[in-house]
Structure prediction request, 128 residues.
Amino acid sequence: MKRLVLSLGLVAVAGLFAACGGASAAPATDTPAASAPAGSGTSVVAKDLEFQQTSFSVPAGAAFDLVFDNQEAAPHNIAISDATGASVFKGEIVSNATVTYSVPALAAGAYPFICEIHPEMKGTITAE
Prediction:
C-alpha cells in the first residue's frame, strides 16, 4: 500500500514538473478580441436612456466595427437607416453588455441611428 501511495505521489510530482517546464504558452493579454481603432469614433455608450455619442464619422465605402456599450439594465440596440428611412443595419438588443456590431459599408452621406426600444435615443453617422 505504501508503494502505491509513493508511486502515485511521484507521478503527481513528475506531472507538475512537466507542466511547469518545456514549451511555454503565449502570455495572456488584456486586449479585447475586437477593438475599435483609436480615434475612429466607432464606439457608442448607452447610459441614462441616451446615447453618449450622438454623432461620429466613418470612412465611406468600408465596413466597420461599432463597439456598443450598454451601461444600464434597460435594453438598447442601434438601428441605422438611410436618408429614405430604409433599414441599413439593426444590432441585437442587449442590457448591461458591450457588443461589437459589424456594420456593412455605407456610401457617403448621413445615416440616422436610433435605439428601437427607445426611439427618442438618436444620433447620426456620417460616412465620408
Remarks:
- Residues 1-41 have pLDDT under 50 and may be disordered.
- The radius of gyration is 24 Å.
- The longest helix spans residues 2-20.
- The helical segments are 2-20.
